[in-house]
Design brief:
The protein is of the alpha+beta class and about 400 residues long. The protein is built from 12 helices and 19 strands. Strands 1, 2, 8, 9, 10, 11, 17 and 18 form an 8-stranded mixed β-sheet that branches. The protein has an 8-stranded mixed β-sheet with strand order 6-5-13-14-15-12-16-19, sandwiched between helices. Helix 1 packs parallel to helix 9, helix 9 runs antiparallel to helix 10 and helix 11 packs across helix 12. P-hydroxybenzoic acid binds next to loops. One of its GO terms (biological process) is benzoate catabolic process.
Length: about 400
């Protein structure tokens, strides 16, 4: 098979990129290791920045998002005693959209056939070849046969564990990483949210987050140590802990219910540079990871593919290779700012096992400063809604 762009991975980065390229008439094939149902079964991001909302709208795929998503004007930081509201609408003139990654992915998947976007699911042993040459290609196994796709460009949208980043020789790349000494235990339940906006809480016992997917479906997280297992946290224990950490106001309005999903994710910050090697271009989690505290992962994947689609469109439609050459630097400039914000909010809101009483006082003093300073709130708000492209 021959195509102009072969994409590895049909998560949000791969599907969004595929649609943006198809909208320009560029031929695209996506190969995905998992089944479509498996991809939709992963419970992940919940908050979309304006830039991500705009991308869905530009593709003409935003109708369900606008009908079912919840626009939020603000969110809260809690310090164990009070809620500090960050009024993002007043401070930035923008809002964020609560609409699950699962729903974004479902909308992108549903529109693929009618737009000529080919997605090959359950492709095993995907391998990238000759990425530094002008004739790169992919191989994979499907239904017992070996397949080959020749392309002008390969795009690695295959997440943190995929093969694309590893196809760049170590001598040509550098990576930067911070692994945090804790994870998030998440619970999804069909109960009304305890508050109409998100609450990020820093409690003596550790971080907690109250989020949602809709007016009748809640998503909560608590910070746990890396040794802990989901089995250590029966539903009642988790609800009790959330009630303590989120504080009395949230606890008074919290409805408990059985877990539809419960899982632990480790937290890390990671960047691999550059995001291009020859004819291989990386986007999304394949090139970088942020801890989920800033709600930036999916949104960074979206901004990467915005730049990448522009670069590949310039190449194919105007024979201009300059934007492909500039892609990595352009994307990384935004990535590093989102890394900084996510790292800073993670440091501010979590209990670190090696933190001492001084560190704790610094967190509380910073939260107190944020509560009293419009400038500090504005800085948080402009990062949370997403820096301009
Ligand atoms: P994905 O979604 O991991 O998709 C990669 C796809 O590649 C496939 N793949 C392969 N395909 C072929 N061959 C192989 N060998 C392959 N190996 C892997 C995988 O099956 C998959 O389908 O990466 P992508 O597209 O870059 O998207 C990134 C986002 O998924 C991620 O950044 C966010 O989910 C992060 N994140 C959040 N981001 C936000 O913007 N806002 C949030 O509120 C938010 N909350 C979260 C999050 C991530 C979380 N977890 C589970 C890590 C909350 C959590 C709990
Ligand atoms: C979520 O709803 O899953 C969510 C929301 C905000 C975050 C992280 C996760 O910062």
């Amino acid at each position: 098979m021959k195509t102009q762009v072969a994409i590895v991975g049909a998560g949000p980065a791969g599907l969004l990129l595929g649609h943006l390229l198809r909208a320009e008439g560029i031929d695209v094939v996506i190969v995905e290791r998992a089944s479509a149902d498996y991809v939709l079964g992963r419970i992940r991001a919940g908050v979309l920045e304006r830039t991500t909302i705009d991308l869905m709208d530009r593709l003409g795929l935003g109708a369900r998002m606008h009908a079912e998503g919840l626009l939020h004007d603000g969110f809260h930081l809690a310090d164990g005693e009070r809620l500090i509201r960050i009024d993002i609408a007043a401070l930035t003139g923008r809002q964020v959209m609560v609409y699950g990654q699962t729903e974004v992915t479902r909308d992108l998947m549903a529109a693929a056939p009618e737009r000529g976007l080919t997605v090959i699911y359950e492709a095993a042993d995907v391998a990238l070849h000759d990425v530094a040459s002008d004739r790169p290609y992919l191989t994979f196994e499907k239904d017992g046969a070996l397949h080959r796709i020749d392309a002008d460009f390969l795009c690695g949208c295959d997440g943190f564990h995929g093969p694309s980043r590893r196809a760049i020789p170590a001598s040509a790349s550098a990576s930067f990483e911070k692994i945090y000494p804790f994870g998030w235990l998440g619970i999804l339940a069909d109960v009304a949210p305890c508050h109409h906006e998100l609450i990020y809480a820093n409690h003596d016992r550790g971080f907690a987050l109250a989020s949602m997917r809709s007016e009748s479906r809640s998503r909560y997280y608590v910070q746990v140590s890396l040794e802990e297992k989901v089995e250590d946290w029966p539903d009642e224990r988790l609800w009790d802990e959330l009630a303590v950490r989120l504080g009395p106001e949230a606890a008074a309005h919290m409805t408990r219910g059985p877990a539809l999903e419960k899982s632990i994710v480790p937290l890390r910050s990671f960047v691999s540079e550059p995001m291009r090697h020859g004819r291989l271009l990386l986007a999304g989690d394949s090139a970088h990871i942020v801890p989920p505290t800033g709600a930036k992962g999916l949104n960074l994947a979206a901004s990467d593919v915005h730049y990448l689609a522009e670069a590949l469109s310039a190449y194919f439609l105007r024979h201009d290779a300059g934007k492909v050459a500039a892609y990595s630097d352009l994307a990384l400039a935004r990535v590093w700012k989102a890394e900084r914000f996510s790292w800073q909010l993670t440091r501010l809101m979590h209990r670190f096992p090696d933190g001492d009483a001084f560190d704790r006082r610094m967190q509380l003093a910073e939260l107190d400063y944020i509560a009293s300073s419009r400038a500090a709130q504005a800085s948080i708000a402009e990062n949370y809604v997403g820096l301009p492209l």
